[in-house]
Amino acid sequence: MARAPLLQLTDIALTFGGDPVFEDLSLVVQPGDRVALVGRNGSGKSTLLKVMAGLVEVDTGGVTVAPGMSVGYMEQDPTMEGFATLGDYASSDMDASDMWRVESVAEGLKFDPARDVNVASGGERRRAALAKLMAEAPGLMLLDEPTNHMDIEAIRWLERELSQTKTGFVLISHDRAFLNALTRATLWIDRGKVRRQEQGFAHFEEWRDKTWEDEDMQRHKLNRKIKEEARWAVEGISARRTRNQGRLRALQDLRAEKSSQIKRQGTAAMALDAGQSSGKRVIEAFGLTKEFEDKTIVRGFDLTVNRGDRIAFVGPNGVGKTTLIKMLLGEVEPDDGSIKTGTNLNVAVFDQARAQLNPHTTLWDNLTTDPSMAVSGKADQIMVRGQPKHVVGYLKEFLFDEAQVRAPVRSLSGGEKARLLLARLMARESNVLVLDEPTNDLDIETMDLLQDLLGDYPGTVLLVSHDRDFIDRVATTTIAMEGNGRCVTYAGGWTDYQNQRAIDEPVAAKKSKSKGKVEAVKEAASGELSFTEKHRLDELPAVIARLEAEIGKLGELMADPALFTDHPVKFQKATDALLDRQAKLDAAEEEWMELEEKAAG
Asked: Where's the ABC transporter domain (predicted)?
């Protein structure tokens, strides 16, 4: 028996007084659905969620919610007027007996319920909105960019919670790893049309590319048919004027069909220019130690950054990632240790706080009044990688239209502000890029382009990000800041870091165990053992010690970040050898335990 849908949209039309946002839109959300809602920035994803939540009134059509079913909506920028603390907001409209839910979610998402809403950051306010939604436990959750401004630890906590829930949800996110892990169906908004595929986001790009390929083929066939019919009309119309008017009307219909097709939005025409190369050694840091307000950022940290390295800094929010980068660049003094920077460094910074943008002035003024971009005597031009360019033309390359160019920055969406920052960043030459949370609010196509540019960029990249997939695609080295001053350098991206950590931790634990075991072997009693077993028991301590020594050497070899980037084959062989030695050590220890128990009777 088919289940009634949680929510149904029927023949929805919405215009906001201009071009249609949606026309003839119908869709259903079923119980247990885990849906990714994807599309370009500005395609209407957030608007569609608000329609589902009943917060936006449609022009025509209907929104039907199952009887007795509640719909919960988490917006990107929650309004908290009238509430003193984040906890007050998150627990509003809840019974006192349910407060434990808010506290539990607050602990998982790592925000302080006692935080004053007036001083809370955008990320803290968003986490409070998410806590409110999850604590209320509605029958359908509508989540608009829940992972923005979250650190990886909180994202993984939320990922686990959503993976275990039986509640249906529709999710907007640009975090590939998050979407891949959670979704089972995909809604795709493209030029006002909403398509659905009964597969999760992991299959989206293949589906999108096939759809566009089919569309291009149909457009090609249409163009060819129009060309053939137009040639016929020119060459034979006078002789067949009366009996072929129908064919002429068909040609007009074909041309009308072509003109009605909506052109796909292109990708931003982004480019990076490293300009003059830096020296081979970009940064050398020795024994860095830094404390802020009784919190240790780093302790005894060493790092060498070479030209072309792409280093990701990961760790919880507030652990000091940005502070460490500023120390490496000489902007913050360490309490102890030394830093040596290389020659010819030209640093460009993408600031997650977006302090480089003046929200009260226009996009035009934000670029033309920047001294590094101004062109003397040309108020309508800016300097782009050494060449003057009209400001409107340059902003069009980043998908801004002429109306937006004269609008204030505060009117932009989060994704548009991120694109404007990238436009400023990429207008200048640089051989060291500092990217502090560059992927927040960017759509997937723009993230793909940025990732490709960074892959070809000959300069050095210092990256702070909580997007695991983006780190995997970009980073050659990952520095894990684990708190209390502990910073560990790993070769590769996020997945490489996780794999190496999974190997390192058991090895460290086994070393301490094995010491005791080896000593015990020497004192093992000679119970009912055969001559061969006694001999094996005697030689096992040396076998275990040898395997431990080999594992230690392999661990030291793999700790060198340059091994992964400069010698990937050697790195893979070392990884395979480490896993092999670890398996042999496990087997030797197990064999020793069996023999020792037998000898003890």
From this structure: 7-216, 283-509
Distances (CA, A) of 86 to 96, 100, 103, 112, 378: 16, 15, 11, 7, 49
Measured distance CA(407)–CA(414) in Å, rounded: 15
Helices 568-599 and 531-558: angle between axes, nearest 10 degrees: 150
Q: Looking at the domain assignment, is residue 145 inside a domain?
A: yes
| Backbone dihedral angles phi then psi of residue 485, each to the nearest 5 degrees | 85, 0
pTM of the model: 0.74
| 407/546 same-domain check | no
Q: Is residue 11 part of a domain?
A: yes
3-state class (DSSP) for residue 92 = coil
What is the per-residue pLDDT across 172-210, written as a single tens digit (0 to 9) for each?
A: 999 999 999 999 999 999 877 899 999 999 999 899 889
Under the banding of pLDDT at 50, 70 and 90, the label for residue 526 is: very low
* Structure confidence by residue, pLDDT tens digits, 386-441: 889 999 998 888 888 888 899 998 888 888 888 888 888 888 888 999 999 888 88
Output b/e per residue, 245-269; b: 16+ Cβ within 10 A. eeeeeebeebeeeeeeeeeeeeebe
Give the domain CATH number at 330: 3.40.50.300
Asked if residue 453 and residue 368 are part of one domain, the reply reads: yes
Phi-psi region of 330 (alpha: psi -120 to 50; beta: other; left: phi over 0): left
Residue of 36, 40, 68 lying closest to 49 (CA atoms): 36
- Partners of 193 in beta bridges: 190
Residue entry with tokens 């028991």? 537
Q: Which domain holds residue 96?
A: 7-206
pLDDT one-digit tens code per residue, 24-51 = 889 999 999 999 999 888 788 889 999 9
Query: Are the C-beta atoms of 447 and 473 separated by less than 8 Å?
Result: no
Domain termination residue (choose one: 469, 491, 513): 491
